Amino acid sequence: MTTLDAIKVRHSVRQYTDQPIDGEILKALQEEIDACNRESGMHIQLVRNEPKAFAGFMAHYGNFKGVTNYVALVGKKGANLEETCGYFGERIVLKAQQLGLNTCWVALTYKKIAGAFDVNQGEKLAVVLSIGYGKTQGTVRSSKTAGQVSNAGSQTPDWFNAGVEAALLAPTAMNQQKFTLMYENGKVSAKAGNGFYTKMDLGIVKYHFEIGAGNGEWSWK
Question: What local confidence, expressed as pLDDT, does residue 108 receive?
Fold first, then answer.
């Protein structure tokens, strides 16, 4: 399964079986987390066999069940933290999908458990990803059109249009899809709209766009 294939089939999953993440799957997942940390300077950590974070009222309210594994997206405080979390967190999400695992971005409906992961001085926990073997593969959500989020059309290159289509499959907070992608003279601008977690959403969207557009002669504006 390619990364683009993973984009097309991946959906949020909130209920998991008790099958452990281990062996070669665990190794490959940890290698991707390590690579993301090296490239981003973040302090992303995989937490395994820890059921308390998703055992409270908020998790049940969010319909999370059987969550004992999650990824803590921790990084240095700063203006770019949320977008960086989105970009590299989605890399991990899609790698997990390729490995046969399921995930869900979780902003509020979990509890911070002391000692489960480290947050060093100057760092912040931005969000977590539930991860494991889902009871289902999730469901397709509604989506805006390319015209609602971009200037994609007959006058823009095929690679840009493909990038926008991949971006429309990006998970966003409350499925709000508050982002704009614009093409002009070989460059692409990406902007976040107003709302909760839109900067994090933008990081996710930009990673999806890059996968969809490929390595053509283009750059971010």
Answer: 84
What's the CA gap between 75 and 72, in Å, rounded?
10
Q: What is the pLDDT of residue 150?
A: 98
Ordered mean pLDDT values, 10 residues apiece, the chain (221 residues): 98 97 98 98 98 81 89 97 98 98 94 95 97 96 97 96 98 96 96 96 98 92 92
Q: Domain of 151? A: 146-214
Q: Which two three-digit tokens encode residue 108? A: 């509020």
Q: What is the CATH classification number for the domain harbouring 177?
A: 3.40.109.30
Burial string for 112-138 (b: 16+ CB within 10 Å, else e) reads ebeebbeeeeeebbbbbbbbbbbeeeb
Residues 41, 74 within the same domain: yes
Task: Confirm if 30 and 121 have CB atoms less than 8 A apart.
Answer: no
Structural domains of the chain, count: 2
Between β-strands 45-47 and 70-76, what pairing exists: parallel, antiparallel or unpaired? antiparallel
β-pair type (219-220, 187-192):
parallel
Q: 152 and 183 in contact (C-beta within 8 Å)?
A: yes
> Does pTM surpass 0.90?
yes
On whether residue 139 sits in a domain, the answer given is: no
